[in-house]
Write a structure and sequence with these properties.
By secondary structure, the protein is of the alpha/beta class. The protein has 2 domains: 129 residues, 3-Layer(aba) Sandwich (Rossmann fold), CATH 3.40.50; 239 residues, Orthogonal Bundle (Arc Repressor Mutant, subunit A), CATH 1.10.10.10. It has 16 helices and 11 strands. Helix 8 packs parallel to helix 13 and helix 9 packs across helix 13.
């Protein structure tokens, strides 16, 4: 079993009178992680209980605002997990009543979509909750179990099949089968259930277009034209995909420098296996023409995981000028601008973006390739 980096962050917040809200796509390991936390709490003498909120028996007991009824349901438990809590009507209000009336009960509420769960717990739990996101495996988590030599040997498989827990240690055929199942759950169990969205073909076509554009700036108007829908519909669907942890966006960095591209964005996938499943592209890297895009997506999402696990707070962007100069990824913090270019091939030539370095003080640009990625994605002591 892999030790999840987020586990320690969650444990530090236990028994502080706050509800722990754990988001993440299905099959990223939320249930496994929450049960592991409960088991360890039981070993420390705590009374713990897991509840599956998709069960009607649990739903009927928790869909109440009667504080005595809620307390009676939990009994003398010290810590409880409400898995897939978005299935409970008015879950936010119920949690507010519990945390206000019985602050000694530690509640961990999980949900497969921030879109639904935030709407239900957001306002009632203002100041009463701590939020975390569980992603597929991170390189930091894999490093805790494998050495760098083994990870390097697995890198091609990671770029082809991603890092979902149920996929990572399967063979190629098993990985493809599992990804097909996960992708179907994304599209038809979670996403289409929200706002009664019924146009699965449009959603799938949009995902395929986004999958083919990773690493490139995305034009909403171009997407709308290709799919014969309004820009409003494209914006709505992409927002939904972000809130369901399928894709995430990176905004352009601009300080109004002339010829600097502003107000544009790139869209990446939270998992490359899902991205490749959408376009049925599992072929080896030697037979692909999208290695650069895969590497860029991989480095950015893994850096996102790294920053969360290590509590590095920064603003993130990309930068480009109309002349063609660009920086794939930028982190802004404490007045510094750390830029990174992603080149899978360590022998590929890199042209320094002089305009960026000249224009912005305290800026730098480093190249991350297949031979030095660990310096960017792993703790220094590793």
């Amino acid at each position: 079993m892999f030790e999840r980096s987020i586990k320690l962050l969650i444990e530090k917040q236990l028994y502080k009178g706050k509800v722990i809200v754990l988001y993440g796509a299905r099959r990223t390991g939320k249930t496994t992680l929450s049960k592991q936390i409960l088991k360890e709490q039981e070993l420390e003498g705590k009374k713990a209980k897991y509840y599956n909120c998709e069960l009607l028996s649990v739903k009927s007991e928790l869909e109440t605002t009667n504080e005595q009824a809620l307390k009676s349901f939990f009994g003398d438990k010290d810590i409880v997990v409400l898995d897939e809590a978005q299935n409970i009507e008015n879950i936010g209000l119920a949690l507010k009543i519990l945390v206000d009336t019985y602050p000694d009960i530690q509640i961990i509420a999980t949900g497969s979509s921030s879109f639904d769960l935030v709407n239900k717990v957001g306002e009632p739990l203002v100041g009463r909750s701590r939020h975390f996101i569980l992603y597929p495996f991170s390189m930091q988590e894999i490093r805790n179990k494998h050495d760098l030599f083994d990870i390097s040997a697995k890198m091609e498989s990671i770029l082809r099949f991603g890092l979902y827990p149920s996929v990572f240690e399967l063979d190629d055929e098993g990985s493809a089968d599992e990804l097909e199942d996960i992708a179907s759950n994304y599209l038809y169990k979670d996403i289409l259930a929200f706002e009664n969205i019924k146009n699965s073909r449009l959603l799938l076509d949009l995902l395929k277009l986004l999958a083919l554009q990773i690493g490139n700036e995305v034009s909403y108007s171009e997407l709308a034209q290709k799919l014969s829908v309004s820009i409003h519909t494209i914006i709505k669907y992409i927002d939904l995909l972000e809130k369901c942890f399928v894709v995430f966006s990176l905004r352009s960095f601009s300080r109004n420098l002339r010829n600097e591209i502003g107000k544009s964005q790139k869209i990446y996938f939270y998992d490359l296996g899902i991205r490749n499943a959408l376009i049925n592209a599992y072929n080896p890297l030697s037979m692909r023409n999208d290695i650069g895009a895969l590497w860029e997506n991989f480095c950015i999402i893994e850096r996102l995981k790294y920053n969360q696990a290590n509590k590095n707070r920064c603003n993130t962007y990309f930068w480009r000028m109309y002349s063609g100069q660009e920086v794939d990824y930028i982190e802004e913090y404490s007045g510094l601008l750390d830029g990174f270019e992603f080149k899978y091939n360590p022998n590929m030539k890199f042209k320094t973006p002089k305009k960026f370095l000249e224009t912005y003080e305290n800026s730098s640009v480093d190249v991350i390739h297949s031979k030095n990625w660990w310096e960017f994605l792993l703790k220094k002591e590793q």
